[in-house]
Write a structure and sequence with these properties.
Structural class: alpha/beta
GO biological process, one term: tyrosyl-tRNA aminoacylation
Strand order of the largest sheet: 1-6-5-2-3-4
CATH architecture of the largest domain: 3-Layer(aba) Sandwich
Family: Belongs to the class-I aminoacyl-tRNA synthetase family. TyrS type 2 subfamily.
Number of strands: 13
Keywords: Aminoacyl-tRNA synthetase, ATP-binding, Cytoplasm, Ligase, Nucleotide-binding, Protein biosynthesis, RNA-binding
Number of domains: 3
Radius of gyration: 24 Å
Order of helices and strands: HEHEHEHEHHHHEHEHHHHHEEHHEEEEE
CATH superfamily of the largest domain: HUPs
Catalytic activity: tRNA(Tyr) + L-tyrosine + ATP = L-tyrosyl-tRNA(Tyr) + AMP + diphosphate + H(+)
Oligomer: single chain
EC number: 6.1.1.1
CATH class of the largest domain: Alpha Beta
Distance between the termini: 49 Å
CATH topology of the largest domain: Rossmann fold
Length: 407
């Protein structure tokens, strides 16, 4: 945008909101000018977020970009929640080292049914435009797809880091995977997006949309990427496949326990990316912790805020009361060994042995028979108990504890 527009105080304030927690905004000055033009004309910007329904549920990692969408919605802009029911059948190759198995139409439809219902817990449904990219992708046909592909070169597609690594490593890349970024980019053409949001792993795809808009004679969208939320393990990005996630449809007790399990340092990252508190309010909390206040209090407040958002305030209060009841009188320590075990379900005897809570299977069985084993505060009476994937506080006697994650 060559036209110089002086930024008003309102736009400067809006930009501070937009940039909160952002990894990158391309191009920042360009988007600021779009905001100013929107202010001057009263025409809201069209803000796009696309999500492929590859799983039936949304977790907190997904809500990072949804929260940013809500902030833009509250600034008065038109947000478009795009459900990629067509592109989900291809599978996003971003960050993958192998071809993603395609989903069936039936799987996609089942997953798509719940996506917006869950996203609506963050977005304002009355001010959200819901679209499905099958509406235009199904109509492209072979001729339209070939025309679309003519707007991008193989050399540009191969600039993607994951494609380059797979090609150099001799790992197969299917031709249909090249179509994914083109189709995601074409969504921006159809929607005439002014800004598209995504995680840092989506940057290439988002930039393809920007380039295709230019090819189709449209004003180019700006691109905003959000950091990938680190999972409960403090290492990998939050992912259902890595079992380090907090699902937004989980029970309040489960959500509370999982959030309380994150490290004190990771807590501040969660505050910045997930909390509705202002940056000044978060800084005040950090200063209080530095001055000696127990960070556990801040973690409790974060857990309650998140549970209130996805359930209600009463559920958040009950989750806190239940949690404190389990830890009252030193029954369960806040700090304990962390253990990750192979994919479940696993029998409780094997869990006790592998977690180092019992030296042998026979000793584990004896502890269960004597009533000395608890899982999440509940006494285990059945030695055949199976634990599915998840994170549990496992206790033997009064002093042996481990936080066990079954992947």
């Amino acid at each position: 945008m060559s036209e110089e527009i002086k930024m008003s105080a309102e736009v400067e304030r809006d930009m501070r909101t937009v940039l909160r927690g952002v990894d990158e905004l391309l191009v920042e000055t360009e988007f600021a000018q779009k905001l100013q033009k929107s202010r001057d004309t009263g025409v809201p910007l069209r803000i796009k977020l696309g999500m492929d329904p590859t799983a039936p549920d949304i977790h907190l990692g997904h809500t990072v970009v949804l929260t940013k969408m809500r902030q833009l919605q509250d600034l008065g802009h038109q947000v478009i929640f795009l459900i990629g029911d067509f592109t989900a059948a291809i599978g996003d190759p971003s960050g993958r080292n192998s071809t993603r198995p395609p989903l069936s139409r039936e799987q996609i439809e089942v997953n798509a049914q719940t996506y917006y219902e869950q996203a609506a817990k963050i977005l304002d449904p009355a001010r959200t435009e819901i679209r499905y990219n099958s509406a235009w992708c199904d109509q492209l046909g072979a001729r339209g797809l070939i025309k679309l592909a003519s707007h991008y070169t193989v050399a540009r597609i191969m600039e993607r880091d994951d494609f380059t690594k797979r090609f150099k490593g001799g790992i197969p890349i299917s031709v249909h995977e090249f179509l994914y970024p083109l189709l995601q980019g074409y969504d921006s053409v159809e929607l005439k997006a002014d800004l598209e949001l995504g995680g840092t792993d989506q940057k290439f795809n988002l930039l393809v949309g920007r380039e295709l808009q230019k090819e189709y004679g449209q004003a180019q969208q700006s691109v905003l990427t959000m950091p990938l939320l680190v999972g409960l393990d403090g290492v990998e990005k939050m992912s259902k496949s890595k079992n380090n996630y907090v699902g937004i449809t989980e029970t309040p007790d489960s959500m509370f326990g999982k959030i309380m399990s994150i490290s004190d340092s990771l807590m501040w990252n969660y505050y910045e990316l997930l909390s509705a508190k202002t940056l000044d309010e978060i800084e005040t909390l950090k200063q209080a912790a530095a001055a000696g206040e127990n960070p556990r209090n801040m973690k409790v407040a974060l857990a309650q805020e998140i549970i209130t958002r996805f359930h209600n305030a009463a559920a958040a209060e009950k989750a806190l009361a239940d949690f404190e009841a389990r830890f009252r009188d030193g029954q369960i320590p806040e700090d304990m060994p962390e253990v990750t075990l192979p994919a479940g379900p696993l029998g409780i005897v094997a869990v006790l042995r592998e977690a180092g809570l019992a030296p042998s299977g026979s000793e584990a069985t004896r502890n269960i028979q004597q009533g000395g084993v608890k899982v999440d505060g509940q006494k285990v009476e059945d030695k055949a108990l199976q634990l599915s994937a998840g994170t549990y506080v496992v206790q033997v006697g009064k002093r042996k504890f481990a936080r066990v994650t079954i992947a």
